[in-house]
Design a protein that fits this description.
This protein is an alpha/beta fold. The protein is built from 18 helices and 14 strands. A six-stranded parallel sheet has the order 3-2-1-4-5-6, sandwiched between helices. The chain has a six-stranded parallel sheet with strand order 11-10-9-12-13-14. The structure holds uridine-5'-diphosphate-glucuronic acid. The site of uridine-5'-diphosphate-glucuronic acid has 22 residues, from helix 9 and helix 11.
Length: 435
């Protein structure tokens, strides 16, 4: 089988390389010639662990090609749509222009009997609309939906060893084609769920909404712990032992960001309103506000230590990416906090092992350090905002000599509080009582 992958961002580039590694001939298609030129020579235009090695191996094997020309996919059997669906300007809804453009671009080249498979995260009802559009365009290809659950930072692992495969199909033949495409994964007993189109679309946004809810739940508990003098990290550990609750995604801190969770819960709310089911997702509004409040609470703690007026105060910010193992700064809580304290007049120095350059494109006025040491030097307070391994491994005794005042706020509750305190640091964590 020959597969095309339309859109070569995190999802598409990873999917293309992973499917080639399963032995298929794959062509990745994108409208961005710069991206395609890089991918052709085995270069990944963003940071994603293990992806570059896989990409180089598959490009060298001859199974994986990249192009900007949709006609190169003309005799292919399956076309995966992997383009982005960002939040629309001035609205909660998703911007569907890339999905619509991808369908229109591939439709004239998709042969009779081929399958066009949406993997992008979309508002429920999109697949049905796209099927209609395919028929209007006179195409004899069929449409299916196969949502993707990969996490940035683990994209390769999640693509080759997913928790489950969900396929929304309208015929047995479409399911058979997808079973052939995923045979190596099915041979490894990955659960296979056949659904109708709307259910397949909904599974993805339901999963992300649940994850967002879990994070905001623990961050609401963090607010209560702060008010009552408790410690949210102990609370999370204790409730997490109940297997019905589970300990994952109960890390309290400055909240969720990135290109998925925030925009997906917002688009889900917007779509529920269109469906006349607004009330059912009203709680997501609260999930969103708890999430954004966590950033504000972090800034309140900074003011508690440095005083209300932050003008001229030197602040070290460790982390700019929305999470570790990623250089993605889209809706990053870390970068948002850095920008807000800078807007209040503070002299902010940011260091991220991978995301400095993306952060600089977004907020060029912040100071970007080349190392942790440079970032911490002369700081009146240190904000730990993205829990990279190298930050968690810092020696509090060693780095104390760099700063002007040994104040640290752990915005991710990932540092060893006792070790920092015994090294003489004044330590705060979101949702944790302070001496
Ligand atoms: C998320 C989902 O986890 C994936 O399953 C999904 O496929 C993907 O979105 C998508 O829709 O494409 P991702 O955006 O890579 O993946 O990031 P997550 O690992 O989910 O983390 C999201 C945010 O939540 C990060 O900012 C992270 O720091 C934060 N988080 C996570 C917490 O604040 N606490 C936690 O306990 C866990």
């Amino acid at each position: 089988m020959k597969l095309s992958v339309i859109g070569t961002g995190y999802l598409g580039a990873t999917h293309a390389a992973a499917m080639a590694s399963l032995g298929f001939d794959v062509v990745g298609v994108d409208v961005d010639p710069k991206k395609i030129e890089l991918l052709k020579v085995g270069k990944v235009p963003f940071f994603e662990p293990d992806l570059e090695d896989l990409l180089i191996a598959e490009v060298n094997s001859g199974r994986l090609k990249f192009t900007t020309d949709f006609s190169e996919a003309k005799d292919y059997d399956v076309h995966f749509i992997c383009v982005g669906t960002p939040q629309q300007q001035g609205s909660l809804a998703a911007d569907m222009k890339y999905v619509d453009a991808a369908l229109d671009a591939i439709a004239p080249h998709a042969k009779t009997g081929s399958l066009i498979v949406g993997k992008s995260t979309v508002p429920v009802g999109t697949a049905e609309q796209l099927s209609k559009r395919l028929r209007e365009l006179g195409s004899k290809a069929e449409l299916a939906w196969n949502p993707e659950f990969l996490r940035e930072g683990f994209a390769v692992e999640d693509t080759l060893r997913p928790n489950r495969l969900v396929v929304g199909v309208t015929s047995d033949s479409a399911e058979e084609i997808l079973k052939r495409a995923y045979k190596p994964l099915l041979d490894n007993n990955v659960p296979w769920i056949r659904a109708d189109l709307p259910t397949a679309e909904l599974v993805k946004v339901a999963a992300n909404s649940f994850l967002a809810t879990k994070i905001s739940f623990i961050n609401a508990m963090a607010e209560i712990c702060e008010a009552a003098g408790g410690d949210v990290t102990v609370l999370a550990k204790a409730i997490g032992y109940d297997p019905r609750i589970g300990s994952r995604f109960l890390q309290a801190g400055i909240g969720f960001g990135g290109g998925c969770l925030p925009k997906d819960i917002r688009a889900f709310m917007a779509r529920s309103e269109e469906l006349g089911a607004k009330q059912s997702l009203e709680f997501l509004r609260e999930i969103d506000s708890i999430n954004l409040r966590a950033r504000q609470r972090m800034i309140d703690l900074v003011r508690l230590d440095l005083g209300a007026d932050l003008k001229g105060k030197r602040i070290a910010v460790l982390g700019a990416a929305f999470k570790p193992e990623s250089d993605d700064v889209r809706d990053s809580p870390a970068l948002d906090i850095a920008a807000q304290v800078a807007a209040a007049g503070a002299d902010v120095y940011v260091f991220d092992p991978k995301a400095n350059s993306n952060a600089k494109l977004r907020f060029p006025a912040l100071n970007y350090s080349h190392s942790v040491e440079e970032c911490l030097s002369g700081a009146e307070i240190v904000l730990h905002l993205t829990e990279w391994k190298e930050f968690r491994a810092l020696d509090p005794i060693k780095v104390k000599s760099l700063v002007a005042r040994p104040n640290i706020i752990d915005g991710r509750n990932a540092l060893d509080k006792a070790a920092w305190e015994s090294a003489g640091w004044h330590f705060r964590g979101l949702g944790r009582a302070t001496r």
